[in-house]
Amino acid sequence: MGNLTNVSVRNLRIDLGANTVIDELDLDVRAGEFVVLLGPSGCGKSTLLHSIAGLVDVTDGSIEIGGEDMTWADPKDRGVALVFQSYALYPTMNVERNLSFALRINGTPKAEIERRVKRAADMLQLGPLLARKPAQLSGGQRQRVAIGRALVREADVFLFDEPLSNLDAKLRTELRRELKQLHQHLGATMIYVTHDQVEAMTLATRMAVMKGGAIQQFGTPAEVYARPENLFVATFLGAPPMNLLHGRLEADEGRLRFRGPALDVDVSAYPFKGTPDPTRACVLGVRPEDVRAAGAVRPHDVAWEGRLTLVEPMGNHRVLWIEHQGGQIASIDQDKTPLASGAAVPFSIDGAHVSLFDEETGARI
Questions:
Q1: How many Å separate Cα 285 from the centre of its chain?
Q2: Are 50 and 56 in contact (CB under 8 A)?
Q3: Is the domain of 284 the same as that of 152?
Q4: Which of 22, 60, 84, 140 is deepest in the core (most CB within 10 A)?
Q5: Residue 219: which CATH number?
Q6: How far apart are CA 308 and CA 288, in angstroms?
Q7: pLDDT digits over 254-266, tens only?
Q8: Is this model's pTM higher than 0.85 or not?
Q9: What is the dihedral of CA 356, 360, 362, 365, to 10 degrees?
Q10: Based on the domain organization, do 214 and 265 belong to the same domain?
């Protein structure tokens, strides 16, 4: 194995007691990728990561790392390095000793230890902190040390289990950027677990959205965001999440339209997966940035009217919440025109950027 190491999970099943946490899961991580496992608490993402690390026994299936079957290999023989959510630093050792501890107990030559520690310290800007103990470090600095402890292993695959969740928002942003730069510098294979969609969208070359021990969709962040495979993915990603409008498809003078309560959207150009059923009950999904409202509605747009219930200023944009037919529709715009809560506002939907889902199954159609 080397830096260019792939990970292949096949038909993985993991039972914890009487509960099946993961069932018949497949995952292919290409060499050099930064893959993010994203999902809510309890979806099985950390269990999947720990099974790759060898910390959780599999019930069935296989795990290959670098083309070698590692399903039952000892964790130390898998060529992986794991960074946990907790720093787990030795409080009586300084940063240099924390970084070098595993190498020292493995009998690594002193010159090699010094080389690896210096390399990790330089990458993570830990040089001035090598003599300090964990109690003298900030939370962000401690997490850097924990990452550095994995780096000195010079592993083939780096595994991260929600490493930034204990940090405040500013530190998370800083370390997120540093992790991305670290991946670009190393070119190593990395698998990262998080429930934070911003981390997933910004870090991943590809992301696997998980629910109930299964992967709902696996693709680039842009693909998953723009073309969610089902209603769960559509609503899990995005802040605010995708607007969902219920109605049905109808054919009208050679055009295919989505019609709902006081809504009529031309979806003739929609890339259906098969032949569309013109009487099908379905759900139209549209991202808030594809809903134009108030002054952003263009003269030639087909517009509807709703009642403004809330304006959320977000700095470089604002979120408008519009009540329409008893539901709430979110619109993101950059207009600075003052709007009063309760006012009637027009809104339009960009029909070129919608998703359609089966009402019954929730799957993309």
A1: 20
A2: yes
A3: no
A4: 22
A5: 3.40.50.300
A6: 14
A7: 899 999 998 999 9
A8: yes
A9: -40
A10: no
